[in-house]
Design a protein that fits this description.
2 copies of one chain form a homodimer. Chain A is mainly α. In chain A, 65% of the residues lie in helices and 9% in strands. Chain A binds a DNA duplex (30 and 30 nucleotides) through helix 2 and helix 3.
Chain lengths: 189, 189
DNA sequence: GCATCCTAGTCAAGAAAATGACTAATCACA
DNA sequence: TGTGATTAGTCATTTTCTTGACTAGGATGC
């Protein structure tokens, strides 16, 4: 009963097909929620049967037909209700961190590689989110956009994502350096 | 097939009962993995049946008896194998962020309150993790500890947790301020 | 001219995780 | 003297997630 609200929140940006929604969950929404496309199709069907979203068929010539969904008034009411209720505490789940926690018992070389790779991914995502933010705010500067923009929700969560990715990148780089130095010390004995 | 490695990594710190493990998953391990105590008991039973951990009964007078677990050589080998394999991408899941994404459609007052509350929690966790780090490194300074400490894995993941919480707190404070200012603008019209 | 990618989904099986209830003794507090 | 917290778990059910396979046509690249 939680994915549904992430879907509703994502659909506020406009009409989406399940496929497009899955894309959104790979980029902006990924800053706070992850879901596979099959889950999204299933959730959309459930939301539709409950009347929280409506879909309309769009026939396409060069592409398979699709169904575009948007949030209904009942969906908005449900979001409103959700917004007022208590939130579950957030959680992270990260296998790379599990490995680092076990760093003293596993192969350092491989770990360093993975940290560098992850740092590169985080760096790429940092740049991507930077671009996305520029796109979302358009011509105006950030402070002005945040004061008077019409749809700032996605912007705010992207800000969080950007900060997270930067921070994560820095940590990865630093930890890789720490592990490299320790390898040098061990090799030098 | 993922919780098992988090459990193995956590058990590297020494012998733990299921109950103690659950505590660890609420503090240090929470920086990268979340699990309910029931899951941990179940996972420990599975790991034991596969020979990756061994448990020994400890009879207590004033407390219920408990079973302390430690990682076996087979468990270490499994961790080693896990360390060399590719990691799944990490994911965050945060209902508060879902709400912020939908900020334009839900009640601002409640959201601001929740952001402030979350900021306070993050602040408390920041302080807690700071203390934990001091405790982990003992008398030596950080650079020295990271160069020559014996068990740095938990320290490194706590560093990540600390950074995350600080960052999260700052974001919460800032977003609450942004939403407050927007409320002022609306009220002023 | 063939291979692969992209759009746009659907289906089913099985693993993993979340939830809620329950036991039972001890200790701290008021 | 009783209320609640702490230690130390167990059991069962439901929900959610993951994985892999499958359809099908058009676009793109080599």
């Amino acid at each position: 009963m939680a994915l549904r609200h992430a879907v509703l929140a994502a659909l506020l940006d406009g009409e989406y097909s399940g496929y497009q929604l899955a894309k959104a969950f790979d980029v902006g929404v990924a800053n706070f929620w992850h879901a596979a496309s099959q889950q999204l199709y299933a959730e959309l069907a459930k939301l539709e049967s409950e009347g929280l979203v409506t879909g309309r068929q769009v026939v396409q010539k060069t592409r398979p037909d699709k169904r575009l969904f948007r949030v209904t008034d009942a969906g908005l009411a449900e979001l409103e209700r959700f917004g007022a209720a208590a939130s579950k505490p957030s959680f992270i789940r990260d296998e790379l961190l599990v490995k680092v926690h076990a760093a003293d018992s596993i192969d350092g070389g491989s770990l360093i590689e993975q940290l560098q790779e992850r740092a590169a991914v985080a760096e790429a995502k940092t740049e991507f989110l930077g671009g996305l933010l520029r796109q979302l705010r358009g011509e105006v500067d950030e402070a002005e956009f945040l004061r008077r923009g019409e749809r700032i929700g996605p912007y705010l969560t992207c800000l969080r994502g950007l900060s997270f990715e930067r921070d994560h990148r820095d940590w990865c780089v630093r930890i890789a350096a720490v592990l490299r130095e320790r390898q040098g010390i061990h090799a030098g004995r």
